[in-house]
Amino acid sequence: MPGPTCRVMVVAMKTLILVLLVVWLVLSVLGALIEGLMWLLMVGLILFAVTAAYGWLTRGRGANRT
């Protein structure tokens, strides 16, 4: 059974992943809106996909650790 410290770490990791997703989304929108920063759109979309995939793959891992 995980202790309170483990639960805090899981919540902190989920919060970090959500913040990163928002940052990547903002970068993507800025890259799409500003014509000279189209590369920023690509970087933002790639980082968004990687962060979302990591969050999806590790979503249940924290509760199973002892």
UniProtKB/TrEMBL annotation:
Report the domain of life of the source organism: Bacteria
Q: Where are the transmembrane segments?
A: 12-31, 37-57
Q: Which UniProt keywords apply?
A: Membrane, Transmembrane, Transmembrane helix
Keyword Transmembrane helix (UniProt): yes
Name recorded for this polypeptide: Flagellar biosynthesis protein FlhA
